[in-house]
Amino acid sequence: MRAGRNRRDAPAAGQRRRILVVEDDADMREFLSLLLGETYDLFLRSSAEEALALARDAQPDALLLDIVLPGMDGFAFLRALRRDVHTADIPAILLSAEADEEVRLRAFEEGAADYLAKPFHARELVARIEKAVRAAEERRELWHLATTDALTGLANLRFLRETLAREIERVQRYGEPLTLVLIDMDGLKEINDRRGHEAGNEALRILADTIRSTLRSADFAARFGGDEFAILLPHSDAEEGARLAERIRLALGSEGSLPLRASFGIASVDGTAADANQLFTTADRALYEAKRMGKDRVVVARGER
User: Fold this and answer.
1) Which helix (H) or strand (E) holds 63?
2) Greatest C-alpha distance within the chain
3) Is the pTM of this model over 0.90?
């Protein structure tokens, strides 16, 4: 499942944190490398433009960022960092030769996690890096708890709404297709009645794992009701959604320990008139049609697969 934002897990025991240093002064880069190299895995870059691409790809645990840089300065870098959903929550510590209070205030206004004037003590720098990383990890954990379904590990209704709104904006801007697959497990009540609620919970986890195993990195899945799930497929039309739904349906039916059934409703949008509520309503109608026709089937809006 894609999380919308890229959320880094805390390093495993013994794993070193990764720090991206953005500093155009070669002597300062060497100094920071000697100072921090034994404690952290470092990425050293001299320009903000290079560092932005690396931050997105490498997902460092924190950034050390000089304010005065060639081309894009540190403040512009921070703004670009915060605009990108993949880098918005990486903590950045700004380094500056100026101890001016206005510069310090602006650093925090632009989204810096901390600010340190040069020259600085080595122990203070390490302490501030650790503090910034821990605070970011705590925020990510709170975010995870607030947006994740505890039983299945998929996104919850709140995060589904947020992600659907963002994807609809992208469709309206670029005209690329977006497909919504709604899934309703068939017979969950009977499982609960005959085998107990833990068996019902296990059935829901099996469905969630089956969904997860089919997704591409750009796709998104959520559980938004007791036995109701949703998949968002960016850059995909309804036919692609139908193929994915059929793979899930067949995989569920072949689940040895607890063979399951589910019904699927699919709808797609691809233009400036795209509307989140309408997309959901259309997919829900297709799902209702799948239920009406006998369940355990895939129905695309205005057609069946």
Assistant:
1) strand 62-66
2) 73
3) no
